C-alpha cells in the first residue's frame, strides 16, 4: 500500500506489527510524554532514540540510551536512513518506509 507520508513499521513478531506515520519527528522511549512510540520495557531508556524527517532525508540518533540502537548486528549512535532502512531497539525490529523516496536502502 503506497504511503503519502513516511511511516515507521514496528514489529515484535511477524504477525504483531504497528504502522506509525510521522511527519517531522518520532521519539522512541519508555516514558509516554505524548509520543506515538512508547515501549514499556526497562531495557528501553526513558529517552532512547529519535528519528527526524527533513525535506531531504531522515536522521536517526541514539539519545544516550543504555542499550542502544542496532543495525545489522552493529551498535550505532546515529544514521541517515533511507527507504527500507531497518534497525532494532531491544526486541523490536523497525523499518522506515517512504514511498516518496526514489531509493531503497540496501
How does the SSE layout of this entry go?
Elements: E1 7-13, E2 16-21, E3 25-29, E4 37-38, E5 49-53, E6 58-62, E7 69-71, E8 74-76, E9 78-79, E10 86-89, E11 92-97
Parallel strand pairs: 3-4
Antiparallel strand pairs: 1-2, 1-11, 3-5, 5-6, 6-9, 7-8, 10-11
Descriptive notes:
This protein is mainly β and 106 residues long. 0% of the residues lie in helices and 45% in strands. It is built from no helices and 11 strands. A hairpin with a 2-residue loop joins strand 7 and strand 8 (74-76). The protein starts with 6 loop residues before the first strand and ends in a 9-residue tail after the last strand. The mean pLDDT is 80.
Features:
106 residues; mainly beta; 4-stranded antiparallel beta sheet; globular
Amino acid at each position: 500500500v503506497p504511503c503519502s507520508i513516511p511511516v515507521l513499521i514496528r514489529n515484535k513478531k511477524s504477525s504483531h506489527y504497528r504502522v506509525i506515520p510521522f511527519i517531522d519527528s518520532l521519539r522512541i522511549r519508555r516514558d509516554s510524554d505524548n509520543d506515538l512510540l512508547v515501549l514499556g520495557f526497562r531495557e528501553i531508556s526513558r529517552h532512547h532514540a529519535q528519528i527526524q524527517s527533513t525535506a531531504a532525508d531522515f536522521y536517526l540518533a541514539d539519545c544516550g540510551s543504555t542499550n542502544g540502537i542496532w543495525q545489522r548486528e552493529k551498535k550505532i549512535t546515529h544514521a541517515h536512513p533511507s527507504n527500507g532502512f531497518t534497525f532494532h531497539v531491544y526486541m523490536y525490529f523497525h523499518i522506515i518506509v517512504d514511498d516518496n523516496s526514489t531509493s531503497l536502502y540496501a
